[in-house]
Amino acid sequence: MGTTTNSARLAALGELCTNRALRRAELAWGGFHAAEWASLVALSVVAYEADGARAVGLVLFARMVPSAFVAPFVAVIGDRYRRERILLVVHLIRGTACLAAAAALALDAPPIIVYVSAVLAAVPLAAHRPCHLALVPLLARSPRELSASNVAALTLESAAVLAGPLVAAVLLAVSGPAAVFGACAAISFLSFAAIAGIGAGTPSTGAGVRPGVRGELREGVHALAGNPPVRLVVALFGAQTFVRGVLGVTLVVVAIDVLGIGEPGVGTLMAAFGLGGLAGALAGISLVGRGGLGRPFQLSLAGWGLPLVLIGIWPETGVALVALAVSGFANSLLDVAGFTSMQEHVDERLLGRVFGLFELVVIVAVALGSLTAPVLLDVLGSRGALIAIGVLLPGLAVLAHGGLGRIDDGMAVRADELDLLRRTEIFAPLSYASLRRLASSLGEQRAQVGEAIVRQGDDGEVVYVIVEGCAAVSRDGEPVDELGPHDTFGEAALILDAPRNATVTALEPMLLRTLGREPFLAEVTGNRLSKDALDRLVAARSPAAR
User: Fold this and answer.
1) Do residues 230 and 285 share a domain?
2) Strand pairing class (452-454; 488-489)
């Protein structure tokens, strides 16, 4: 079973490699995150050298403020304009700002010039994730390819969390922060080139009547506030990113003052986090496509915080490296479980806006954590601060035990029903999220030998999927076909809005799944590959084809 799963996974990743546009988008995604983490190390070092931990906290807070204002509007913009063009602007701003920071440091300009450049470089944070996640489905040629791109994105992001700080550590050791910012600029411009190479073919989704920006934002807020599972996940993500904000400041103090490993040590500690994240990304693949994500999310949340307690209790370099690697591992699992839960509980038409609001929560939480860190360091010291923030997440994981368990209940869909839909010609091209929605709408019907399940000339409101047994298809009293397990029938009446064009009679006891008109048309006609398969099937079964 494991070998089969791995072979299918490798085949999907192989398909991804042949999709030039999708490959470029994923490389740009990895480049963005590598530049983000490397520049974060350099900025922290510059601020600490200028005015200690308080300056680090204030600068990291300030760089998130513009993004917080931009975030609610980004998702709406991403639904109106071409996503790849927005991403071009993202990488151009990031590259230009990092280049300005490098030049300011090389010319010994005041630190405030570097800080302003860093704030400008952080503005695209609000736009990058929502626009990338909205662009990828337009580039994927099949659901399997789309799933493979999600795996690749998680792996590349984790690799970037490792490589970015590691490159920063090396450049800090041999040169200085200016070299780090220069490297970040180069990576950003390469990401710009990757997106520019995608070319045309990803249309804007801005057509149609919309309620305006405010109306669309209200829809997103209601979708988040009125959805208890998603609301809980977003709140816990907010707590985790608050801790991440505190940690970003605290690690600078720990590396330089407590562990005595100097400025390069800041990058080394962050690279350990990235190494664990890369391992967690590979392990996180096992969570994709499964239900029951509440418990993995809960355990990962606790696993994110507990290693920080260990560093506070036992402040040794080796302990810190291992502990941060464990936190990074938990971080990847947390992302897989949390993002998948959100995707499966939110209507796809609102998902962009919900992720935009999620991005706002993340930005604000990181900013508040950065601002709180100097206070915790003054009151508790670096070791006490690590223990305090480390205990917070396991405590919240315990308090959320019941709510996360209910997320599992809400996501429960029988595996055999999903497998049944995947084996049919018209449903196989649909995304995993679409299949889950359809599976939750399936009904059950049984038929005995000789029973007419549908009759020619009757109105049709239901599509049938055969689970067990076989049936004969007749038209005008003449046999035309036989159907068995995993075959579907009844589609033509719904897609053509016409009476049934044939009679289907059970040849043996049958078990069928039924799907109503509304969910069927909503999912199948909205997917090009599935609609093509449906059109072929309807044409083959039409009277003119006989």
Assistant:
1) yes
2) unpaired
pTM of the model: 0.68
Structure tokens at 528: 């090009």
Question: Is residue 441 located within the same domain as residue 351?
Answer: no
DSSP secondary structure letter of residue 525: T
- Verify that 402 and 461 share a domain, yes or no: no
Residue 206, pLDDT > 50, answer no
Report d(CA 252, CA 182) in Å as an integer: 21
pLDDT at 284: 67
Same domain membership, residue 304 and residue 423 = no
Cβ contacts of 475-479, under 8 Å, gap ≥ 24? 475/501, 475/502, 475/503, 475/543, 475/546
Q: Which segments of 140-255 does DSSP mark as H helices, in order?
A: 143-174, 177-196, 212-225, 228-253
Number of domains in the chain: 2
Task: Pull the structure tokens for residue 502.
Answer: 């044939």
CA distance 79 to 207: 9
Weakest-pLDDT range from 9-13, 286-290, 388-392, 512-516: 9-13
541 and 402 within one domain = no
User: pLDDT tens digits, residue range 208-258?
Assistant: 445 566 777 777 778 788 888 889 999 999 999 999 999 988 888 888 888
SS3 content of the chain, % helix, strand, coil (to 5): 75, 5, 20
